[in-house]
Design a protein that fits this description.
With about 210 residues, the chain is of the alpha/beta class. The chain folds into 2 domains: about 1-35, no CATH class; about 40-214, Rossmann fold, CATH 3.40.50. About 40% of the residues lie in helices and about 20% in strands. It is built from 10 helices and 8 strands. It has helices at about 1-10, 25-35, 60-70, 75-85, 90-95, 110-115, 120-130, 155-160, 170-175, 190-200, and strands at about 40-45, 50-55, 100-105, 135, 140, 165, 175-185, 205-214. The strands form 2 sheets. The protein has a 6-stranded mixed β-sheet. The protein has a two-stranded antiparallel ribbon with strand order 5-6. α4 (about 75-85) packs across α7 (about 120-130). The chain is globular. The relative contact order is 0.16.
């Protein structure tokens, strides 16, 4: 009954075209989305994380939707992005092998101004799909108010993000296989700094997952 009322007040819409549809994608946009997919899994030997998986290149409609999601208060797009990852067969098989999913955290004041952490919403949706995958939005925290990474070059990004994250509960992290979720991968500075703290806290393995790669 509650779902019926909510659907009447806030009808479900396609994440791409915005037309009313019971699924996250209307049939027409689902076909387009498959064409945009460039899913790749990379191994990184010189970082604190072992692998990185991304689903789309950061361009075109995906770039537009991520900007809307992050900066234009369109939090409902979290379901669209989460289902895009979950519906990818290779990604789905990979996700079920991990213990914890952690979103890259935001500085508390910035999250309060935005009203939500975009990566946390997606991570929660993904965790619900697996019995053995635990969502953890507390163990990793951002303790430093940094400049926007997108405004900096590669060297500046590393300096800007240095020591910006802290693991609060090392016991939850120790010996665990962790998925670290972010929205966009550009230089990797942010996820590598997060991974550094997680590895120093005893994480067994870290897979970085992002919606897009720039």
């Amino acid at each position: 009954m509650l779902k019926l009322v909510l659907d009447l007040l806030y009808p479900p819409v396609c994440g791409i075209c915005g037309k009313i549809d019971q699924k996250e994608l209307c049939p027409k946009c689902a076909i387009k989305l498959k064409q945009w997919e460039k899913a790749k899994l990379y191994a990184y030997p010189h970082t604190y994380f072992e692998k990185h998986f991304y689903l789309f290149p950061y361009e075109g409609i995906i770039r537009e939707k991520l900007i809307q999601y992050k900066f234009q208060n369109q939090s409902y797009l979290s379901t669209f992005f989460a289902k895009s990852l979950l519906n990818h067969k290779k990604m789905s098989r990979i996700l079920e092998k991990y213990d914890i999913i952690i979103p890259v955290p935001m500085y508390r004041k910035k999250e309060k101004r935005r009203g939500y952490n975009q990566t946390a919403l997606i991570a929660r949706e993904i965790a619900k799909a697996y019995k053995n995958l635990v969502y953890d939005g507390k163990s990793l925290q951002k303790i430093k108010d940094t400049k926007m990474q997108s405004s900096l070059d590669k060297t500046e990004r590393r300096k800007n993000i240095k020591n910006a994250y802290k693991v609060i509960n090392q016991q939850k992290i120790k010996d665990k296989k962790i998925i670290l979720l972010d929205d966009i991968y550009t230089t990797g500075s942010t996820v590598n700094e997060c991974s550094k703290g997680l590895k120093q806290s005893g994480a067994k393995e870290i897979l970085v997952v992002t919606i897009a790669k720039d």
